UniProtKB/TrEMBL annotation, chain A:
This is Carbohydrate ABC transporter permease. Residues 88-279 form the ABC transmembrane type-1 domain. Belongs to the binding-protein-dependent transport system permease family. InterPro entries: Arsenical_pump_ArsB (IPR000802), MetI-like (IPR000515), MetI-like_sf (IPR035906). The keyword Transcription regulation does not apply. Its main location: membrane. It is found in: Cell membrane. Signal peptide: none annotated. The lineage of its organism: Bacteria, Bacillati, Actinomycetota, Actinomycetes, Micromonosporales. The keyword Cell membrane applies. The chain crosses the membrane at residues 27-52, 87-111, 123-143, 155-174, 213-235, 255-279. PROSITE patterns: ABC_TM1 (PS50928). It holds the Pfam family BPD_transp_1. Keywords: Cell membrane, Membrane, Transmembrane, Transmembrane helix, Transport.
From TrEMBL, chain B:
It is found in: Cell membrane. Residues 77-290 form the ABC transmembrane type-1 domain. It comes from Paractinoplanes ovalisporus. The chain crosses the membrane at residues 18-40, 81-102, 114-133, 164-186, 269-292. This is Sugar ABC transporter permease. Its main location: membrane. PROSITE patterns: ABC_TM1. It comes from the Bacteria. InterPro entries: ABC_transporter_permease, MetI-like, MetI-like_sf. Belongs to the binding-protein-dependent transport system permease family. Keywords: Cell membrane, Membrane, Transmembrane, Transmembrane helix, Transport. It is a multi-pass membrane protein. It holds the Pfam family BPD_transp_1.
């Protein structure tokens, strides 16, 4: 864990001296924040420790006892017979194409809506955004029927399709906001030089959108990887379930093997934690997109 | 997303090229097929009786009449209200307090912030399992209570109908606080620090400065946080599904979990759709709030 500045704006004010009355209260601040932070991370640390204990140790001394063993049997069991290894691969197969396709399609729509005078463009944009705000419950039953009639029910294609369709509105909205802020002179100059709309999109707009694409990509990756409800709606076969759904199945099968359950949760949590630390700055700016300015 | 609107004067005279229409049409059709068409179908299905085989039988408003006299539905509705108030209230209070405390840069702030919003990257299912481990009979919570001499409070938190809902709620709040904190931190960034400093010079106390100087400037963020939290609490499904599946005895049932059970366990597709329509109706006002806010942002 680093103490990197999380919001870029911070550094702008970091140079100012803190007012005196605040400096005096420094100790009180840390006296509250240190225990609070420890309390906050305690559940994670506890699960992590539990995952590395042996079954016998837990059975003999309880889950909350001080660890007396170090063992990888929980991870071995979870990845092997617990099918978490296979599920992890499934999740990657779903997440990567879903994120790429979502961003691609959203960038098309955002480009069309932000750079051209399409009649009713604001209404179209807000309708697309509204689709993303709908409670998924209103879609579940018909979506599983639509997938059946398309002949892709119980396939990963169906899962990718619904992730793309449901997320599009939000990604389009965010990218639209960004593309609109690109000065018209840039594209106008290219147009005079003979570039068509597709070239302007590919050579000028997309490269300039890289920061927002990165932020949205980090966010979309965690959303799609973490999804549960769509997976259990469009998939039936247990062998095809992605990580979150497989985790719940595993929990049912290993009721008192807490080290296996803990190890499986850690396995399910690690990929998003990696994305978080690798893209920390993007992640936070992604969260802020479309919610505030 | 800023007000640096592109001057679109030169483009005004040009027509929209066909390829650009295609750029818009493909994503729009995907969303139409995956979101809007299914949503319309749910409305239709809510007026029918259907088990998924054969044709759906129209039965008018019967599903909604049955809902009104369904005790489980009423319980789930009440639980959802408790959930929205508890989940929303606690995560907003916690997130706001932490944002105010961690707003000014100083030693350790980055570390504290990271720790507090780290849970947000875990899925709700993972969060649920993390907390199941803590809540189980010999888990950390009971052990801790025993260690400080409060054995009498030890419980089977998730198996006890009196505590199951609140036990799940705490886990959900633990994950949400970081998100709300991030939103408020951004809101605080956009407040005018000179106003705060000026009122400090004038002798205003920390509470007065927050209440009368900072808080009024957070109105925009408050609207978003409020809408997002309510929409989220109506959607809440994963964490309950992971921890209790709505049990024991429907004591932690929410509208979303009840809808899922009716639809996918019992195959009462019409009835489940009616519950979904109720969820939609409740969410609608907050969706509109959010969209109005988004429109303002667009117009800015």
């Amino acid at each position: 864990m680093t103490s990197a500045t999380l919001t870029p704006v911070d550094s702008a004010r970091a140079g100012e001296p803190a007012p005196l009355n605040r400096r005096k209260r420094g100790w009180g601040f840390h006296a509250v924040m240190v225990p609070l932070t420890l309390l906050w991370v305690a559940p994670m640390v506890f699960v992590l420790v539990l995952a590395f204990r042996s079954f016998d140790d837990i059975a003999a001394r309880g889950t909350a006892a001080w660890p007396d063993s170090f063992s990888l049997e929980g991870f071995q069991e979870a990845l092997g017979r617990g099918t978490m290894g296979r599920a992890l691969w499934t999740s990657i197969q779903v997440t990567v194409p879903a994120v790429l396709l979502s961003l691609l399609l959203a960038s098309w729509a955002a480009y069309a809506l932000s750079r051209f005078r399409i009649p009713g463009r604001r209404a179209i944009l807000l309708t697309m955004l509204a689709g993303n705000l709908l409670p998924p419950q209103i879609l579940l039953i018909p979506v599983s029927r639509v997938m059946e009639s398309l002949g892709i029910y119980d396939t990963l294609v169906a899962l990718v399709a619904i992730h793309v369709g449901f997320g599009l509105g939000f990604y389009t909205f965010v990218l639209h906001g960004f593309m609109r802020s690109i000065p018209g002179e840039l594209t106008e100059a290219a147009r005079i030089d003979g570039a068509g709309p597709v070239q302007i999109y590919a050579r000028i707009i997309m490269p300039l959108c890289r920061p927002s694409l990165a932020a949205l990509g980090a966010l979309a990756t965690t959303w799609i990887f973490n999804d549960l409800i769509w997976a259990i709606t469009v998939l039936r076969t247990e062998a095809k379930l992605p990580v979150t759904a497989a985790l719940l199945n595993l929990q049912g099968g290993y009721v008192s093997n807490w080290n296996v359950v803990a190890a499986a949760s850690v396995i399910a949590a690690v990929p998003t934690a990696i994305v978080f630390f690798a893209f920390q700055r993007h992640f936070v700016s992604g969260l802020l997109m479309g919610s505030t300015k | 997303m800023t007000a640096v609107a592109a001057p679109d004067r030169p483009r005004r005279r040009t027509r929209v090229p066909a390829v650009v229409w295609a750029f818009l049409a493909v994503p729009a059709l995907v969303e139409l097929a995956m979101v809007f068409w299914p949503a319309l179908n749910s409305f239709y299905l809510s007026f029918t009786e259907w088990n998924g085989l054969g044709a759906a039988k129209p039965i008018g408003l019967d599903n909604f009449r049955n809902l009104a006299s369904d005790d489980v539905f009423r319980g789930a509705f009440e639980n959802n209200v408790i959930w929205a108030v508890g989940f929303g209230g606690l995560s907003v209070l916690g997130g706001l307090a932490l944002a105010v405390a961690l707003n000014r840069p100083r030693r350790g702030v980055g570390l504290y912030r990271s720790a507090i919003y780290l849970p947000m990257v875990f899925s709700l299912a993972v969060t649920g399992l993390f907390w199941r481990v803590q809540y189980q009979p010999d888990g950390t919570i009971n052990t801790f209570l025993g260690a400080i001499g409060l054995e009498s409070l030890e419980k089977q938190w998730l198996a006890n109908p009196d505590t199951a809902l609140y036990a799940v709620l705490i886990a959900a709040v633990w994950r949400q606080v970081g998100y709300v904190m991030v939103l408020y931190l951004a809101g605080l960034k956009s407040t005018d620090p000179t106003l705060d400093d000026a009122s400090a010079v004038d002798g205003a106390s920390a509470w007065q400065r927050f209440r009368f100087v900072t808080w009024p400037q957070l109105r925009g963020v408050n609207t978003v946080v409020f809408a997002v939290t309510v929409i989220d609490s109506l959607r809440t499904f994963d964490i309950v599904w992971a921890m209790t599946q709505g049990g024991p005895y429907h004591s932690s049932e929410l509208l979303s979990t009840y809808m899922f059970q009716q639809g996918f366990t019992f195959l009462n597709l019409g009835y489940a759709s009616a519950i979904a329509v109720v969820i939609f109706a409740l969410a609608l006002i907050f969706i509109i709030t959010y969209l109005v806010r988004a429109t303002k942002e667009e117009a800015a």
